[in-house]
Specification:
The protein is an alpha/beta fold. The chain contains 8 helices and 10 strands. The two termini are 25 Å apart.
């Protein structure tokens, strides 16, 4: 059974008195442990696919299954619970909470899950060490570089040990050297922990790191190929 399966998905958004079709007759399956990028120009449907997989949006038609579960019919509360326990998110703008420390940001999802404080702290301590940001636990986001903030965001995504991590343009606000370091880091996490990563990006650096490249254009699948690294 694929980890993620989209079948004949259509997604239509209202735009004033009109409608915009973001995805049309879109089908895709992704197995556990993949390191995949959704590539294509702006407006091709990349972020829409991530939003559907992540339970942020629901399909207008078709089915979205995660580990065999159809998440399309879930009500908002059930979708929120699904995201909390199954999906890790990494955003281009980091989305850290300014008033919280780096460690508090990283353990925020664990806190929402009701994980005991000692367990949260131990897990974050190990992740910060693995991600090369040990010693920065008590800094606020404003006191961290962009690369350090993104590492905190990766720790937050990894901490709950989710089914899949969705990364929407994660290198957009980073210089090329920092972006390369973080991509190598995520690749290592994928290889060693078998964490499934799905990126949305048009950054050639991200595309070159992926094992599988899925190209979209105008809301449709244009190409799907695997590459060796």
């Amino acid at each position: 059974m694929p980890l993620i399966e989209l079948t004949d998905v259509e997604k239509i958004y209202p735009l004033g008195n009109q409608q915009v079709t973001a995805l049309s007759e879109f089908s895709l399956s992704i197995d556990k442990g993949e390191f995949t990028v959704l590539a294509g120009p702006s407006g091709s449907g990349k972020t829409t696919v991530l939003n559907l997989v992540g339970g942020i949006d629901q399909p207008t038609a078709g089915t979205v299954r995660i580990e065999g579960r159809d998440v399309g019919p879930l009500d908002p509360r059930a979708l929120a619970d699904f995201r909390l326990h199954h999906i890790g998110f990494i955003f281009q703008s980091y989305n850290l909470i300014p008033v919280l420390t780096a460690a508090e940001n990283a353990e925020f999802t664990l806190m929402l899950q009701g994980v005991a404080k000692a367990t949260r702290r131990n897990r974050i301590r190990e992740l910060f060490k693995e991600l090369g940001i040990a010693g920065l636990e008590n800094r606020k986001p404003r006191d961290l570089s962009g690369g350090q903030q993104q590492r905190v965001a990766i720790a937050r995504a990894m901490a709950p040990q989710p089914t899949v991590i969705l990364a929407d343009e994660p290198t957009a606000n980073l210089d090329s050297q920092t972006a390369e370091e973080l991509l190598d880091l995520m690749y290592r996490l994928n290889t060693q922990r078998h964490t499934t990563f799905i990126f949305s990006s048009h950054d050639p650096l991200v595309i070159s790191r992926a094992r599988r490249i899925i190209r979209l254009r105008d809301g449709r699948l244009e190409d799907d190929r695997k590459q060796q690294r």
